[in-house]
Amino acid sequence: MSRDALVVGINQYYTLKSLNTPAADAEAIAQYLETYGNFQVVHRLPLIIQNNQYQVDAKTELGELVTAIKLKLALAQLFNPKGTTFPETALFFFAGHGLREDIGDIQEGYLATSDINPKVNNYGVSLQWLRRLLKKSPIKQQVVWLDCCYSGELFNFDEADPGERGKGRDRCFIAAAREYESAYEETTGNHGILTGALLQGLDPKQSSDGVVNNLILTDFINQKFQGTPQRPLYANSGSKIILTCKKEHWRLWQIFT
Fold it and tell me: Domain range holding 117?
């Protein structure tokens, strides 16, 4: 079972206020995926190597920031890789600024990259573009988690599902806030509110059998945010996707599958 991930945490921007938690959010998710998720490849952006370990860089120097083209290329490599060999599961996590362009009756949401400049019509990576990429993707299990403002725009399209029905795609989409809402950081803690909930929900110890799939995770998040001002959105389709589990489970599955 081949599993790849791309985690992105952008703290620094050219034209927007810098953020405090996205890099820590992304690194925490990356470590969970490596420790409990059996993800063989976890790409980090922006990347720094410290003590021979890959980490999401919280203090990237200008010129080394995550640009729109760099993020699009990384997403294309994750969900639509060249060649005939590709992972069964691909997961994308994003923490940073989210933007929404609203002109006339047309609204469009974006993942804000470090080089964005709305004054020259550069907003980052369009969520509509991401949906088109997912539709073309050959990856069977597709997971997208967005901890940013206006991330509910991911669901704000005419089609209910990004790919044609009957193609056997399994999907788990989670967005921190509705398409017109901001996303927030924890009042006590080091993470965005959605990321904090994801880290709790992904912990295999909170599951009765030590296995967390997408349905268990979204049910946990739904319960976690009952009665709160911020209400994440989620959508699951297809079959269950195992996200994390105790290490001994992975070892057994590797032996018998």
Answer: 3-256
Q: Please count the structural domains in the chain.
A: 1
pTM: 0.89
Return d(Cα 169, Cα 151) in angstroms, integer.
22
Would you mind telling me the total number of residues written for the chain in this entry? 257
Structure tokens at 60: 């990237």
Distance CA 204, CA 210 (A): 5
pLDDT digits (tens, 9 = 90+) for 112-162: 999 988 888 888 999 989 989 998 999 999 999 999 876 766 775 444 455
Separation CA 200–CA 217 (nearest Å): 9
Domain with residue 135: its CATH number is 3.40.50.1460
Question: Locate tokens 């073309």: which residue?
Answer: 136
Q: Is 177 exposed, middle or buried (0-12, 13-18, 19+ CB in 10 A)?
A: buried
